Protein 1
Amino acid sequence: MRMLTRKILDRAFTAGGYLAVALMTLFLLWVLVPIFVKGAGAYVFVGTVEYRRMMLGEFGRGNEQRVAAEWAEVQRAREPVYEAIAAFERELPALPVARRKELKPAFQAVREGVAVLLGPAPGKPLPALTRMIYGQTRWRQAQDKAANILFEETWDYSGNGSQKVHVPRQPLFEGTALAPVFPLLRKELRSLLRPRLTFYPRFLTDPSIDAHFFGGIGPEVLGTVYLALGAMLIAVPLGIVAAVYFQEYAREGPVLTFLRSCVNTLAGVPSVVFGLFGLAFFINTLHVSPGKSVLAGALTLALLVLPTVIRSSEEAIAAVPRAYKEGALALGAGQWRTVLTVILPAALPGILTGIVISMGRAAGETAPVVFTAAVSVGKWVTPSEVLSQPTPALSWNLYNLCTEHEAVEEIRHVQYGMAATLVLIVLALNLAAILIRARVAKRLKV
Amino acid sequence: MILSSGEQTRRKLLSLAGRSFLFAVTSAAALAVLAIIFFIARDALPFFRASGVGEFFFSKAWYPAHEPPQFGAAAIFAGSFLVTGAAVVLAVPPGIFAALCMSDILPFKVSQVLKPVIEMLAAIPSVVYGFFALTVVAPFLQDSGRWLPGNIEIVSGVNALTASVILGVMALPTIVSVSEDALQAAGRELREGSYALGATRAETLVNVVIPASMSGICSAVLLGIMRALGETMVVWMASGNAAQIPKPWYNLLQPVRTLTATIAGDMGEADQMTGSAHYHVLFAMGFCLLLFSFVCNLAGEWMVARQRKRLRGG
């Protein structure tokens, strides 16, 4: 019996281990799957005729004649909607006062809803904001907007607690001139908007239009590339030199111990403190730039990744077989030459692994660049401006779009697209590191 | 090889120059951390000199925009500790179990496959975790209140619990990989000795392997705490940012505000007027964070060193 309990306990323990591992894997999937699935929606989606008009109008892309022909057909299909609205507008003043009072707000909502769904009515002056010049460019959102016209969303307080209910608007307008609009929106939405599967790979490189309502994430991607490359440009030489010193030149002693523990401590500094330091030192003390700039951000990120670069380079140098070094020395090469021509080339793949991983880290970090480099306005930064201008970056703009944007829900697809792109960049860099490491392991085995 | 004395001196000088160059660059890289301490302290000092430490550490009144401003950060410290504590409580048991599983239970090949999973968890940028918390976890939590026993109404999915869960996940990779290293360092002989005495695997792990690698596991937990305490984006986006101590204090379903989120969120308003009290109080918070991370780091290093010594010297 006691043996049995012990066995059961043992099994339970093992099961606990499996559970923990499974939990971790499941969580990873829970994070990655929605981000990739919904992020793909920024690149591949069902676009409407409004999307094609927007592309032609804002980016000059697409076949002008074909879009014009399609637009003419769509306008014909939309005529009954606009006619019904106009007819109801004429009919409204003649209605009894009570009925008018009841219908007017609902009519207002319908008219505004139609403008959001299909764009401004023909013959009206064009609004100033680009987002209002076009109707819904994405079919999924168009369906939601159509539902907003068909149903009124109210709260029902009758039960326990409050519940959202959707009340159809059509019965309210039964018998009026507006009534035909509702079946049209319900059944003919396709001919009003002409949804079609659309590929938009240039989401990655297009600038955004009107605060990310349209267009892509090009300036943000470019900013992330600037920051990550800039950080590596600074951190890699420093890191490799330090690693060479630690591994090949330094003698054991209090100085070495002190320097080592400095590097270890640097690795533990919270990322937001790096941001504070970048602001206080690079910008407010050294004045590397008048305000936030790519340069200040890259310097800050370089410090952040420096310990990783040093450690991985040290490991790579330490893994170079002793025989290589001894061979070089025996052939009469000095220590300098041995390091440059034998040890570093042999350690290169390992060093590269650390560099690639650090680059992913630098690309994904947000807190250090908030005060030193990032702005939310999505403007291209040219290479000549990196020394003085701040830049948008994927990480910061993802934060900005999902918390501070005026219409967070409207641009979910852009947020997911950004998140997926950022994760993809980081994971691709990590994958590259894993592949390099596997090759190194193979080479060292032979 | 015989060299003329002039050639020899030249070589020696060159070698010395190269060596000093390497030393200079290395020191510059390593001493960056001292520069960080110095500049954070320099900008934190005016605050402590002007307002003292009493209000900062013991008052809950955080009204930096009032006239005169009030900088009581007690609630913010409490928020940081609450979120970090909860994250660690959530992450440590699965973290240690996963480490045990990878070092002792799973076959070598499977655990090699699992390593990339952990690396990916660690590689996902924190802002993406924050975005995930905001768009997936928070609505999920808000809806799930109805299904919980007692029909709890969760006012907002953006609260201390959401932040803690995500922080826990972010601390997991550190905890798993560091404790796995510690478990493996405990060595075969200990395990085989225990098996030879007739212990089951669970008994071996609990009674022999874990005690032997205890300091390594503790340092893993400390590193996890550091990771959670210093994390910014997730708490900024998902903790609700209300400078208050939840009532009762363990009520994780209320919003809190942390040190890191306050620094990140307020600096946008404060950095326009460099030198204001608001600017300096944020540096004071950064300085406290820096101190915490030093303490954790030192304690962690000390524990790792102790384990190494114990395993070596028996």
Protein 2
Amino acid sequence: MNAQLDSFKYDDAIVRKFLFATVLWGVVGMLVGVIIALQLVMPNLNFTPWLAFGRLRPLHTNAVIFAFAGNAIFTGVYYSSQRLLKTRMFSDALSAAHFWGWQLIIVAAAVTLPLGITQSKEYAELEWPIDIMIAVVWVIFAVNFFMTVARRRERHIYVAIWFYIASIVTVAILHIFNNLSMPAGLFKSYSLYAGVQDAFMQWWYGHNAVAFFLTTPFLGLMYYFMPKAANRPVFSYRLSILHFWTLVFMYIWAGPHHLHYTALPEWASTLGMIFSVMLWMPSWGGGVNGLLTLRGAWNKVAEDPILKFFVVAVTAYMMSTFEGPMLSVKSVNALAHYTDWIIAHVHTGALGWNGFLTAGMLYWLAPRLFQTKLFSQKLAEVHFWFATFGMILYATAIYSAGVQQGLMWRAFDETGRLQYPDFIETTMKLMPMYWMRALGGTMFLVGMILMAYNLVMTWAKRPAKYEEPVVQAPALVKTPGETVPNIFAGLTIPGHRKWEALPLLFTVWTAVAVIVASLFEIIPTFLIQTNIPTIASVKPYTPLELAGRDIYQREGCFNCHSQMVRPFRYETERFGEYSKPGEFVYDHPFLWGSRRTGPDLAREGGKYNNLWHVNHMAQPRKVTPNSIMPAYPQLLTQKLDFATIQKHVDAMAMLGVPYGDMVKEGAAVEAAKAQAAEVAADIAATDPNYTGLEDKEITALVAYLQRLGVDIKKANEVAAARTTAGGQ
Amino acid sequence: MSAPRDEDRLLDHKYDDIQEYDNPLPTWWTVLFVVTIIWAVAYYMNVIPGVGTGKGKIANYDAEMAAAAEKFGTPEQQQEAAIDESAVTAALGDPAKLELGKTTFNTTCMACHNADGGGNIGPNLTDDYWIHGNSKKDILTTITKGVPDKGMPTWSATLKPDQISAVAAYVITLHGTKPAVAKEPQGILMTAEGVPAAADTAAAK
């Protein structure tokens, strides 16, 4: 090697910024988590509409995933990529734009979600202007990252970089295609897809947000920080290659396992299941490589809190990537779906894997970034135990809650009737476990606050001026093979080494793996007509019902109420006829929900009279003693915004919903007012105390709830729909 | 076969001082991976219509419903079984049953008819006016099958037959009590059980 040595400096200032953002949003996101956990046991804590459970729950998930875990990823990526590629980040300006852009998005989320501005798709709640901001900032990140790769002084790219590449490419694809929507105002849009197809796209996105935002980037971080902290070589390069490619290719298929027994065609959910099961070993490959890297370093684990955090992180990763495939098996899923079991599963992943890995990484980074000793090793140790016991308490409580409620829902007595026909009975049983969960979550939060204090105190001891050491590395000399790469080079594992020297090609193949796997499911979902047999009696929502649906979305009702009855006797006995694909063709977006904190509403229409709903929304506990639903008395006084109805109907019509003459200027508003007057008159006739509701929001919401699931009853098409929707 | 030591497999490259072994894949890992793939293919084959034994979720559901109907009767038959006038008569003379009726009423019916039966969302149950009849059979039918058009739910899905007869008996005992707050009369004036007063009707709603 007689290449000339280049001198350069790493940009650690940007890493410090991301580190502080990680800690700040981590504390905020988990604090919101504790608040909503308490709201479930003390419904009176829903004291303002802005901070009610339905609006705070998306804030919690978004804050933890995109703000906390997101900034953690960027912290680790900006630190490790520069060192693994032996170059400074491509552009300090792009780095700054990425940092401030991302924080701006988080602030926008923190403002809009409590205001009820939402697309109502899980982890994709943010409305279209913010979605565009996310896309722009992500592209800035991608350009900065890939240009850094291009300017590297290390010929081959290390496994951590592979995972970063897969994450950056796939998140961009997922984000764009799930968020395609028709704007109906600055803060309102309707998903481009409807019903079954919208559900499919959402869980293709939702599951892979877990994969490519919470798994692959963190595996990349693990591959850098774990061998660094343990000072041991990675266990197996071959395993890295095999588990990387199988993970990237197989993960993308797994999404439909979120929709078992729903109106999604069964072939899709079966594919989701079998790929999830096959995904078990590819996922564990990372865990095996992580834990076996510690061989010969286990003695250090006892005294080093950083390694302790890493060990728990990888263990939690392996537990939840075993549990994931298990939950994807239909018979297990039948019990677990809609219950707290799923909440427990994601928290094993989020608290255990993402939380612990981030903590270990930040403790490892702090002395290096702040160029001084960690303020207190002991406090880090205390944090570890708080986090561990907090997580165990949380998980134990909420696993028990999930299994117990799932079993109660399906229990029949000896006469063949539901053992617990009253839904509220199953809710009340969970309360002790909900208290325990809140306690566990609080302990985890306390741990986070200890870390925040520890890191700030470390920062306070920083030198007056940070040293910026000059790094030297030989420049990369271009070889002729690089300009015209053979795209099939490296298809066998021994040849993989060639790919690692060709990052552009590596990226292309990663994208191909992800896109091809996606298309195998997406194309049939959209093209096969028999997937969604039409039902003639299913008609679009009236303008007033659509306005009610908007309110249902704004208040986040779908966070606690599903609208999807599965074909099981214990579901149809409780809620009514199971849901058919053809019932959702005008549902932009779909609102099937994923957790039944309250009962399913798919067949709510006509179950109770209008007045019942008014009383129930005003104070649920007056109608259902012990209900944990927030009260919505403001809906009885807030005026319905008739002015936007026409715009909303027009947007739906542009998506292909047959609104006919309703799109004529003012027609929708007129129809809405007429229906509102009817509903309000019926309410006033049953209880004369309620007058003047015809221009209030409650009227629209009641109209919507009374419409749910009734179309199919109008014509006796149940049998017909059943025969055509059957089979695989 | 004696595996070479890790150190023999150490790759000669360093990434920011990180080294990698080139250890072979753990055997159990490879075996389990192959097993899951074989299982996946077999499972999918099995649920292809006409190929395997899997019938799909709707066929399974229909079979489940048929089996339950065979064993417990159809939902309609179960409803009819709950409409048992003699059980109401018996409950009227049984303090324990009346207590069960009261408890059931206070958890299930109170929200719409008030604890004292005076009515709010639903009609007053204490006066002489009845929308759907006041005979034991009529009351049982109203509770069991509901009146979906008027917002009275179908309680046979939620209440067991002994609860339904007990609550019907309890409703009969409420008749003639004078609640402090009572809803205006609705339906037909009934002079005795099952006997409507001719031509004297309140505005039916």
Protein 3
Amino acid sequence: MTDSQSDSGLVIEVQNLTKYYGAKAAIKDLSFSIPRGEIIGFLGPNGAGKSTTMRIIAGYLSASSGSACIAGFDITKKSEEVRRRIGFMPENNPLHEDMRVREYLKFRARIKGLTSQKSRNRAEEVIEQFDLYDARNSIIGELSKGFRQRVGLADALVHEPELLVLDEPTIGLDPHQIRTVRQHIKSMGGQHTILMSSHILPEVEVTCSRVLIFHEGNIRANDTPRALENSMGERHKITVELKASLQDLNQTWEEMAEVEYHRVSPAEGDFFRSILTPRDGEDLRPRISALARARGWPLKELTRDRHTLEDIFIHITRSEEEF
Amino acid sequence: MSAITTLTRRELSGHFLCLRGYIILSGVQLLMGGSLLTVVYLLNGRAYDLPLTEKFPQTEFFWLVLLMISPVITMRTFAQEKSSGTFETLMTTPVSDIQVVLAKFLGSYFFYLTAFLPMLLYPFILERYTHESVAVDAGALLSLGLGITLFGSFFMALGCFASSLTRSQIVAAVLTFAVGTCLFMLGYFADLQPPEMKWWHYIFQHISMLNHMEDFSTGIVDSRHILYYLSLTALFLFLTTKSIGSRKWK
């Protein structure tokens, strides 16, 4: 496991990774592996363990137990080799505010082990790649957030790493900047394996080829966005808006054997909106409309949709009490 | 090795990229100039048979500079990187903890030495106005320079250590200043002549920076003093390496 050329095509192999801060476990017994060339999304609420996992992979923190290999190198025994192969952009993208863009990128390339000549060339290349040419001599502290984000990405990529680890790369950007950063990430996806975290679902959905959903230090799901949707998608959800009392509605859904989960919330006027998950994908719409007519409840809406990634995320990360 | 050079250059240039560096440099020149003036004033019209350099450590300006300059130079080393988050991007590059510590130390140390460089002009200034080439003893001047150099290496290492303990630059500066002043004040304890010398007087006398600097300023180069400062420097650099390594197991 010391030669990166002879590995199994897996860029990340994590086994039983656990990290304690004091007595509290930030991540518990994580295991996953990631093949070369994929864009992986870490999805989860704040404090779910995404950043901790990324910091361990990037060599900033050590795990309390368990092991991880990056490109075939063990993160504790061969930490420097691992760091040589990783481009890491931490949350909030910290940069040296007092330096100029090109100077900063050259400096970063140098400490990442590139020769002086190569550092100069690579700095020019990433400046080109991330459209930083006009800002190349600007002081970083005076740049706008979108520019700074691109400088951060350029830094992560400057030594041509095998793996890019980006912690919340689009946080705090405006929609236009988010789109630009997303495009850059996608364009890097061809040659590099990318690990990014986010708590914005659509972002992960459009950018990533695989999603790992974190919750309370565990991985609750690990699949492609489409497969995740399908796993729930067998059971469509039905949305009903009825004018009836809350108790009546709750009682009705509880008594209906085909309904696995239900959630009732107030809607406009005296109406209540119920979201139902049928037990085995059965289309309950005819039954519900018949029921509404029989009870004399005015009916405003009755629709049947697939579950979105958002529903799945909420379902997984909400302590199982309701869905 | 090239990583250390790159990081040291970055550290040193960081001092010159912000206003603070220039404020430190001018502050030092101002106070050392005050020190020189005091010495000249003391000697005005009086015969004095000792090297001029000896008077230097006895002016309060001199000690004020030595005790104040180190905290303000070193407080940014780790604390600033920690609070801005760049510490994380630094430590995830393929550089080792010891390389980072040495680079931070060397960068600060070179800046410290830069601040004292203009002192080399003092003998010429004195000579120009006293018209007496014997006013300054070259040997004593060199040994005072050695004293300042050694004193700085210890204080830079201490400052780096204090800065590695915290995210707050102010806390780092106050810590460095407090420890430095305590070591300096021991000199006064050692100089108080009690009815009889107890064992701890000898210890205080031995670790007192004031006594060391007096020796250096009169041209006495004692290898025990050199060893004292070098070993303290090594100790604090070692502690700094352990301190920044602690992020991994904390």
